[in-house]
Amino acid sequence: MMAKVAQSEQIKAVVSPEVLMLFEDWMEELEHEALRAIKKAGVADPMALAEDLGLSRSGAQFLIAKLKKEQKL
User: Fold this and answer.
1) Full residue range of the structural domain in which residue 34 is found
2) In this structure, are residues 3 and 58 in contact, taking their beta carbons and an 8 Å threshold?
3) Distant-in-sequence, close-in-space partners of 15: CB < 8 Å, separation ≥ 6
4) pLDDT in tens, the chain (73 residues)
5) What distance in Å separates the CA atoms of residue 35 and residue 12, rounded to the nearest whole number?
6) Do 28 and 35 contact (CB within 8 A), yes or no?
7) Nearest to 50 by CA among 6, 42, 32, 58
8) How far is CA 31 from CA 16, 25, 28, 62, in A?
9) Within 10 A of 71 (CB to CB), how many other CB atoms are there?
10) Confidence (pLDDT) at 2
């Protein structure tokens, strides 16, 4: 899943705008859930986040890195 996020330019070229909007909405909600979980835990632990959100560890690591890069975390 997260490997596909990294290929967002390719995704934009293939999917319809409606599907892309749904994907972006889903990612935004996932970010909010991650921020809530991290705030509750007090630490950005990929394993704990993966378990809390039902993600793979690499998915959680990607999400944490994305939030840090966007200065949301």
Assistant:
1) 2-69
2) no
3) 23
4) 556 555 666 666 677 888 878 888 999 999 999 999 999 999 999 999 999 999 999 999 999 999 999 999 8
5) 26
6) no
7) 58
8) 23, 10, 5, 11
9) 6
10) 56
pLDDT at residue 19 in the model: 82
Q: Which helix (H) or strand (E) holds 1?
A: none
- Nearest-5° Cα angle at 11, 36 to 32: 5
Q: How many CB atoms lie within 10 A of CB 15?
A: 13
Which residue carries 């997260």 as its tokens? 2
Amino acid at 63: L
Tally the domains of the chain.
1
Q: What is the pTM of this model?
A: 0.75
